């Protein structure tokens, strides 16, 4: 079987779904099902990546992905950058309002923003009102359901263990975050947040795709802390 | 130095505070400060256990505790049992009301109940409205502050990672729980909750004293699941 034009070399672990598929280190998505194509020999498999039209085909032990259109990866990057930027804007807005720390989160369903929230710890006198928990609560209220398995969440910063737990409990399918936890710790936040690093593997195993922004996305997210640190009361 | 009458052999790790002091496997409290008593030789130390008048003295490498009154341990057990029973009653109440799963939590400050809450996931269409998160939010609202460092929390069941995170963020000083997470998993809850086991060591290091109920306290807490499993909608 020849590779279709415009495909890239895809890396898949040799295990049953769910698993994370990546191209050149960039996570494409969580593969939830693989169908064997018996006409093409025993090494050929077809997998569907949720949220895209990509078809994955194995070919003599190597695997390629035929995207539905050229530049699929770039489109995913652009889309992620757009929603992550919105989460970063929320982080600034939260500090401007005096509502809490510089953290924002956006819940997206079918390319539409469901809710866009920021940290409300000070405003609501509630230590659990982190941006992600607030966004999940608001999205569930708005959509009238307790599970968000058709949604993604974009967070300006790596979630803390409480927020990772909330993302898991809400069954959100995909998390994209901007700044590393260490960027928040560097301006004085509890290093408890970095425990999320330990949790990442666990949550990925639990069917949640997790993507750390890179390049400009990571940069604008990490700048939030330096740019706001004089403007809010640390708690 | 002779041990005072009515004292018990106390086990303390040979490290600097904070650390957890225990007698015969029963956790007494988190020791936050140790003062050396130079008159009594280099091996003697006096430590104060927060929330009690206990004085801890080391004696040639062994350490004894002189309680402020005989039966101190029994009083702590009785007190813990009283508040844990209230948390268990909340778990049943939550199911009776149809508000959510069979989980209850009580926040206590200076021997007084601040709030007594149960799981509100179904009632509020909110996957983050676990009993502990709800209790912390309500206690903060009632006390008008975002940190509960003078409070304890009693939970009918071992907290999930999200709730452990919320307890940590609220700076609650002491957690007493009844049922092991496995008792909830046995009736069908997400085994995500058992990840808390991994977290216990981490949270203890972070100045939170954690006590697992034993005997009758554990029994009544674990019975909650068997007794309610037909009465609520699993989510």
From TrEMBL, chains A, B:
PROSITE patterns on file: CYT_DCMP_DEAMINASES_1, CYT_DCMP_DEAMINASES_2
CMP/dCMP-type deaminase domain residues: 78-192
Pfam families the record matches: dCMP_cyt_deam_1 (PF00383)
Classification via PANTHER family: CMP_DCMP-TYPE DEAMINASE DOMAIN-CONTAINING PROTEIN, CYTOSINE DEAMINASE FAMILY MEMBER
Taxonomic superkingdom: Eukaryota
Family: Belongs to the cytidine and deoxycytidylate deaminase family.
Record keywords: Hydrolase, Metal-binding, Zinc
Gene3D superfamilies for this protein: Cytidine Deaminase, domain 2
Gene Ontology molecular function, alphabetical: hydrolase activity; metal ion binding
Full protein name: CMP/dCMP-type deaminase domain-containing protein
Origin species: Urochloa decumbens
Lineage, broadest ranks: Eukaryota, Viridiplantae, Streptophyta, Embryophyta, Tracheophyta
InterPro entries registered for this protein in UniProt: APOBEC/CMP_deaminase_Zn-bd (IPR016192), CMP_dCMP_dom (IPR002125), Cytidine_deaminase-like (IPR016193)
